[in-house]
Design goal:
Helix content: 25-40%
Number of helices: 12
CATH architecture of the largest domain: 3-Layer(aba) Sandwich
Largest sheet: 10 strands, mixed
Number of strands: 15
Strand content: 25-35%
Number of domains: 2
CATH class of the largest domain: Alpha Beta
Shape: globular
CATH topology of the largest domain: D-Maltodextrin-Binding Protein, domain 2
């Protein structure tokens, strides 16, 4: 079985930054090849390919796999050292005046508010990858704090997922907010959509959230409960990364419906049918608690709660409450 090699050395990442070398590496991950074969695939003379091969060899990304004797000439074959490569390097701003906090996880409008409110003292960088990938990023050390709204089959939010994904980690979890989600629809709801079952109508085009997002997991759970196949929903396989993108896609006329935040629908003047209220939590490693104190303290302020309450469908009653410590 081919392995995945994790790259964190500058020279390796630099070698892959050249698009021609990256293309060669991808060929050699598929199967061994000689300079002649690579030249033919790239439309370049083998002598030009040799330069890139040497760079990849020096970086430790490829190796010689064998050779053949063809018409009296030895032809060397190369192959990649791994079946896939994962680049792990975080580049953060260099600014002694501000601390940089990396947020990863589910897209949230209150996090955007938080970033603006703290911008004078904290650089809060958001990486919206979905709830599941946010927790995985936290485990791998790619972020300081992860946001999630994952509903478990037992009806509990987030805690079961954290216990499964980070069983050996000392973590803390606090509630950011309760949020209203539902069907975001074109203004006036011209397709007459009332519930999830109406998404199967052949004239309705749906826009989805990405796999691993809490919204997508909730939808899949409900469709299964209702006995609706995803193949019955036009556009189910078309996904975007944020609630705002859902609303913008519908506003532009490229879709008729999507699942998203009430606040995102209201911000763009879309129609909205509420479906569920959820708890959105922030998870962090306990050894980062001192570093994150300014952010966590601000969650407790009346100023922030009042700001959040201006977001349609948000409830800040439990903001800052500790779920896991």
């Amino acid at each position: 079985m081919d392995k995945v090699e994790i790259l964190n050395q500058y020279e390796q990442i630099k070698a892959m930054a050249d698009p021609r070398r990256l293309e060669i590496l991808r060929f050699l991950m598929s199967e061994p090849a000689s300079l002649t074969q690579l030249g033919a695939r790239l439309g370049q003379h083998p002598a030009r390919v040799r330069h890139h091969i040497k760079k990849l060899e020096i970086a430790g990304l490829i190796e010689v796999s064998g050779s053949t004797l063809t018409r009296g000439a030895t032809e060397i074959f190369y192959r990649a050292k791994a079946g896939a490569y994962l680049i792990q390097q975080m580049v953060k701003p260099l600014d002694d005046r501000k601390r940089t906090i990396i947020f990863s996880g589910s897209h949230d409008l209150a996090i955007e508010q938080l970033s603006l409110a703290l911008s004078a003292h904290i650089n809060l960088v958001s990486f919206p990858v979905g709830s599941l990938d946010g927790l995985i990023s936290l485990r791998q050390g790619f972020c300081h704090i992860a946001g999630s709204h994952l509903l478990d089959t037992n009806g509990e939010y987030n805690v079961p997922y954290v216990q499964r994904l980070l069983p050996d980690c000392s973590v803390a979890m606090v509630t950011l907010a309760f949020r209203e989600q539902g069907l975001i629809l074109a203004k006036g709801n011209p397709k007459g959509i009332r519930d999830l079952a109406d998404l199967t109508h052949p004239e309705v085009f749906f826009i989805n959230r990405q796999p691993g997002s809490g919204t997508r997991l909730w939808l899949d759970m409900q469709l299964k409960r209702l006995g609706i196949s995803t193949s019955e929903i036009r556009g189910y396989d078309k996904a975007v990364g944020t609630h705002t993108e859902i609303a913008m896609t519908i506003q532009s006329g490229l879709a008729d419906a999507g699942i998203g935040l009430q606040a995102s629908a209201k911000n763009l003047g879309m129609d909205f049918i509420p479906l569920f209220n959820e708890r959105y939590d922030l998870t962090m490693m306990n050894d980062q608690s001192t570093f994150l104190t300014p952010l966590l303290d601000y969650l407790q302020t009346r100023v922030y709660r009042n700001e959040m309450s201006r977001l349609s469908g948000y409830d800040s009653t439990h903001t800052g409450e500790q779920i896991i410590q």
